[in-house]
Design brief:
There is one protein chain. By secondary structure, the protein is of the alpha+beta class. The chain folds into two domains: 335 residues, Outer membrane efflux proteins (OEP) (Up-down Bundle), CATH 1.20.1600; 76 residues, Outer membrane efflux proteins (OEP) (Single Sheet). It has nine helices and six strands. The strands form two sheets. It has a four-stranded antiparallel beta sheet, with no helix packed on it. The longest helix is centred in the middle third of the chain and has 67 residues.
Length: 467
């Protein structure tokens, strides 16, 4: 509402221009070989991983997370605050019913010596007040409230995106740890095979007593290495239960393995400009900037006169029976003008503070954009480095396997010392574990990349925050 043709004071908000960048990587960064920047696919970001177990776990976490419940409640609060701000643009009507005892001082009326009676006064009435909002302060206040509600909506989106990222991260870590445990169990099996070779050599008359002790020592050392991995696995499983809103004794997550994930060989990510328009933390920062800009208008309008139209009607009588009579009616109607004459510089200082607050919001917005682009660049570089490392370690493992077979054959025939067998076995064990760790690291880095480059967590790209 408000008078037509009266413009609101203060700056009219203009959204920041999106980044014009065409790539995330810095010159010289490693990057996945099969990468294409294009429009996002029409599915949730983790759908690229093609894991039904992950889909189910994320749905359970979204349904049970207390963090998301708090985010949704915060959004509801912000929307109600915006609704209250909109209500302030309409006429405000109040009503009242009262009764009071009043003593009349007749001496003050020029009748000394007469007793002062005490009477009862009944009142019934209503008042209407409407701010003409000549300079748009109320309109700017509503604009700020709407922007804050939008910021809360995007923060709720960010909470959902963070949760799905954490669930996927822990699921990938569980798969990685299971793979490392499997690789270590394979090492332990090889240790047992080597002990069998040593025993066979001893039975054939070789001097292998010290060799058996060394083989057993290696078996014990490798077996002991299982405990830290199993402990880490338990912590990740507990973390998944917590994310889903359960205590560890109340829910058991799926036992993820690397084979549960089958991401495509080629990656399709949103372009930088698309990411800036869709990532919820960036959109929340922009909405904060919009609200800060509107508050400049609120503070500016406070420097100007305020005109409010008021009207009221009251029925006053000494007895309830007389309240409906016309003679008991009192009314008022007319404009009220208030303007600041001297306030010690308070209002101008508040406007300057609003301008500085908008500068802070703008800086935070730019920092959020840079942080988001950096997160994607970091994850892209990590995945690229992982690909190169996996390729190298695959060759190392293949060569170490061939070397171990040669060492075993030579030792079995008595043509090689035991030290050669031990060294070959250690080399293969290290190569296997390094390769498995690199593959798990790549899966985790890929999850980080997909979450960082995502703008949505739902089944379709249409977002709450943008609605």
């Amino acid at each position: 509402m408000g008078l037509a043709g009266c413009a609101a004071v203060g700056p009219n908000y203009t959204p920041p221009k999106p980044t014009a960048g065409t790539t995330f990587a810095m010159t010289g960064d490693a990057a996945p070989s099969a990468l294409r920047l294009d429009a996002p696919v029409d599915r949730p970001w983790w759908g690229v991983l093609n894991s039904s177990k992950l889909d189910q776990t994320i749905r359970q976490a979204v349904a049970g997370s207390p963090t998301l419940a708090a985010a949704d409640a915060t959004l509801g609060e912000a929307r109600q605050e915006a609704a209250a701000a909109h209500g302030g643009r309409y006429p405000q009507v109040t009503g009242g019913v009262g009764y009071q005892r009043e003593r009349i001082n007749v001496s003050a009326l020029g009748f000394p010596g007469f007793p002062s009676p005490t009477i009862g006064l009944y009142t019934v009435g209503a008042n209407v007040s409407y701010d003409l909002d000549l300079f748009g302060g109320e309109r700017r206040r509503v604009e700020a409230a709407d922007a804050q509600a939008k910021a809360a909506a995007w923060r709720a989106e960010a909470a959902y995106l963070t949760l799905t990222g954490q669930v996927a991260e822990n699921a990938a870590a569980i798969a990685d740890l299971n793979a490392q445990i499997g690789a270590l169990k394979a090492v332990i099996h090889d240790d047992e095979v080597d002990i069998g070779l040593i025993r066979a050599a001893e039975e054939a008359g070789g001097d292998a007593r010290s060799h058996i002790l060394g083989g057993r020592a290696k078996l014990a050392r490798d077996t002991a290495a299982l405990a830290p991995l199993q402990q880490a696995l338990s912590l990740r499983r507990h973390a998944l239960a917590q994310l889903a809103g359960h205590s560890p004794d109340g829910w058991t997550p799926p036992d993820f393995t690397v084979s549960d994930f089958s991401p495509p060989a080629d990656l399709v990510l949103a372009t930088p400009s698309t990411l800036v328009r869709r990532r919820p933390d960036i959109q929340a920062a922009e909405a904060d900037l919009h609200a800060a800009s509107a508050r400049i208008g609120v503070a500016t309008a406070d420097l100007y006169p305020d005109v409010r139209v008021t009207a009221g009607i009251t029925q006053e009588a000494l007895t309830p029976q007389n309240l409906p009579q016309f003679a008991a009616t009192a009314y008022n109607f007319g404009p009220q003008l208030s303007l600041p004459l001297f306030d010690g510089g308070i209002l101008r200082a508040r406007r300057h503070a609003a301008v500085e607050a908008a500068k802070v919001s703008e800086a935070r917005y730019r920092a959020t954009v840079v942080q988001a682009l950096t997160e994607v660049a970091d994850a892209l570089s990590a995945v690229g480095e992982d690909d190169q490392r996996i390729a190298s370690l695959t060759k190392v493992e293949r060569l170490a396997q061939a070397s171990l077979e040669d060492a075993r054959n030579a030792y079995r025939l008595g043509g090689a010392p035991f030290a050669d067998l031990v060294n070959a076995q250690d080399s293969l064990d290290a190569a296997r574990r390094d390769l498995v760790a690199a593959q798990g690291q790549r899966l985790g880095d890929l999850v980080t990349l997909l979450a960082a480059a995502a703008g949505d967590w739902r089944e379709t790209p249409s977002g709450k925050g943008g609605s």
